[in-house]
Amino acid sequence: MIPHTDKPIRFHLAEDTIDNADVDELVAWLKTYPRLTKGPRTVEFEQAWSAWLGAPYSVFCNSGSSANLLAYYALLRSGRLRNHRVVVPSVGWVTTVAPALQLGLEPFMCEADPDTYGLDLNHLERLLKEHQPGLVVMVQVLGVPHKMDELMALKERYGFALIEDACAAGGAAYKGRKVGTFGDLGTFSAYFGHQFSTIEGGLVSTGDAALRDLLLMHRSHGWSKDLAKAEHDALVKKHGIDDFHTPFVFYEAGFNLRPTDLQAVLGLGQVRKLDRMVARRRVNHARFAERLSGAVGFQKAPEGAQTCSISFGALAKDNAQRRRIVAALAENGVETRVFSAGNLGLHPFWTERFGPASFPMADRIHHGGFFLPNNPSLSAADVDAIADVVLGAL
Fold first, then answer.
1. Are 143 and 376 spatial neighbours (Cβ–Cβ below 8 Å)?
2. Edge-first strand listing for the sheet containing 311-315
3. Rounded to the nearest 10 degrees, how much is the dihedral formed by the CA atoms of 367, 89, 349, 64?
4. Residue where a domain stops, chosen among 243, 266, 289
5. Alpha carbon distance 121, 132 (integer Å)
6. In angstroms, rounded to a whole number, what is the distance separating the alpha carbons of residues 239 and 387?
7. What is the pLDDT of residues 131-172, one digit of tens each?
8. CA end-to-end distance (rounded Å), the chain
9. Which of 264, 291, 315, 362 has the highest CB neighbour count under 10 A?
């Protein structure tokens, strides 16, 4: 429990990346009295994001959680999964795992890697050998890239589809390649406090045109309005649709997870300054690691990786030490919280269905993990001040 304190907050855990210039640009656009719901600006933002990321296709939706749901559903409806078994991470967010339950898949939870806190590759391979799952879902935890050479070698060896949840990792990279481009589908969040913000929002990126088309249909009810003309016409011909009905024919049992053009206008501004914001987060993260080395645990990125964290994730030796650190942070006006959600296998949504999924590393993160602020507004002196509080508590 984070202790109550009347001390003013000096360092917020998250700061909005939407600044006055972004708001002024939005206001100027609004004064043109444009269409506000999903329209041409959404497509423009999708293209700008894809170009920045290095992925052929991207689909903008209303949240990172919806992006995960769309990614699962597109693979499920693609017919490419050899079965409905899926490996899910113990450390992540509930909506990384929830679609597996919502869509009737059979999930197997994987231990956390002691370095990156992503999927433990030894445990993953045991699950692959035992269950031959058709799908693996991994998280680029908190913007610290996972051991992607090793993971992709397992993908090649065992032939599973891969969803890469990079919702809290936009801008992180592994050997020169941005995370979110390794999986069959990569998901991102544009929520407040993440690497960039569209107020609410998410994206799914992929290199597969057929998956992109499924994402577009599933995002908007299951109709074909967002498809390119050739793909739309092919569906009309395949199903013998009367011309009068064409705009309102539902080829898939879809959702309504659309964003708005208002959000897309904000997203376009975010992409233009994203490199600068990413660079600041990387510098802050490295300084935290330097200052806190040997004092508390924290994620260690593999060689060739570039971290871009939304918060600096630290690990106390036990719950008692975490309580002392958290109390000191609160007393000094530094906002903190638990590390992501800890071990998802200890949460009721999982335990009521399957019983506890307890693992040594994931449990350590659950009972000892905490966040320190990292956002582009922090200076080196701010990082030092926050680190000094942690060191003083020890």
1. no
2. 297-298, 311-315, 369-373
3. 110
4. 266
5. 15
6. 63
7. 999 999 999 999 999 999 999 999 999 999 999 999 999 999
8. 19
9. 362
Asked if residue 359 and residue 218 are part of one domain, the reply reads no
- Give the separation between CA 317 and CA 352, rounded to whole angstroms: 29
| Residues 313, 224 share a domain | no
Distance, in Å, from the CA atom of 276 to the CA atom of 266, rounded to the nearest integer, reads 16
Instruction: Assess whether 46 and 154 both reside in one domain.
Output: yes
**Amino acid letter for position 104:** G
| H helices present in the chain, as ranges | 20-30, 40-53, 64-78, 94-102, 121-131, 148-158, 209-219, 229-239, 261-292, 319-331, 348-354, 360-368, 380-393
Model confidence, pTM: 0.96
Which are the contacts of 381, defined by CB distance < 8 A and separation ≥ 6? none
CA atoms within 13 A on the CB side of 313: 31
If asked whether residues 116 and 246 sit together in one domain, one would say yes
- Does residue 292 fall inside a structural domain? yes
Domain end residue (candidates: 266, 301, 320): 266
Question: Tokens standing for 217?
Answer: 């249909």
Range of the domain at 285: 276-393
- The C-alpha atoms of residue 88 and residue 90 are separated, in whole angstroms, by 7
* Maximum C-alpha span of the chain: 73
CATH number at 315 reads: 3.90.1150.10
Query: pLDDT of 369-394, one tens digit each?
Result: 999 999 999 999 999 999 999 999 99
